[in-house]
Amino acid sequence: MIITSKTNSKVKQAVALRDRRDRDRTSLFLIEGYREISRALQAGVAFETLFFCPELFLGENEEHILNGASNCLQTTESVFRKLSYRDRPDGLLAIAHKMNLQFDQIQLKENPCVVIAEAIEKPGNLGTIIRSSDAAGIDLVIVANGCTDMYNPNVVRASVGTLFTIPVVEATNEETLRFCRVHHLKLIAATPEAETLYTDLPMLDGVGIVVGTEQLGLTSFWKRECDHMVRIPMHGVADSLNVATATTLVLYEVVRQRYADSVRR
Questions:
Q1: How far is CA 16 from the centre of its chain?
Q2: Does residue 122 share a domain with residue 216?
Q3: pTM above 0.85, yes or no
Q4: Do 137 and 253 reside in the same domain of the chain?
Q5: For residue 155, which of 55, 107, 127, 222 is within the disulfide window of CB 3.0 to 4.6 Å?
Q6: In whole angstroms, how far apart are CA 31 and each of 45, 47, 79, 86?
């Protein structure tokens, strides 16, 4: 059976999940796109429904996704465009169950690197921070005092599905601090007013990289609790970088230092 009506109950359910209130109420969220859905399946994310529209497929590998998911529902192109939140949909969209990872499920390796993203406001920035953390091999991302729901469709999209390949936990600032202290992480705040350059601080031991909101930066809570504060040098008119860009730079400094240390050994 092919869904031809935009008022179909399943279609209406999916559209409603663009709203955070419905995601919170149902513990369901949306995943759209071949790469995102493929990575979610590989990570064992539980799907409730997978909508597909062959007329919009961009390649020839979609069949393995359909074979790997249950409750697949085909739609017409017009119905799928109603479902989609993208300008150029590729014919795959899933309703999935939230992962709801908790701190007691996290096992950190020796000398881990953890990202603490406090109150990030823009979904695209949060998704990019998760994507950069995955690329840099970071152990955990903590969304502290979250303004943006990590299950926002635009977080999933900006992360390119890496939301499912790296552990991500939502927590309060206080819960996050307790976790970091239990694991003896050296907390490093990235903030424009710091004196120490981010390249001058050793980051070989277990570290927590703390970054703050786009508009206001870190709150006094983290400025007070962090062990070190570092800055990225600015040589132009701008006095700060986009939070996702700044996070990426600091994470790759961690990678650089640890690679250099491994070579020396």
A1: 21
A2: yes
A3: yes
A4: yes
A5: 127
A6: 10, 9, 17, 11
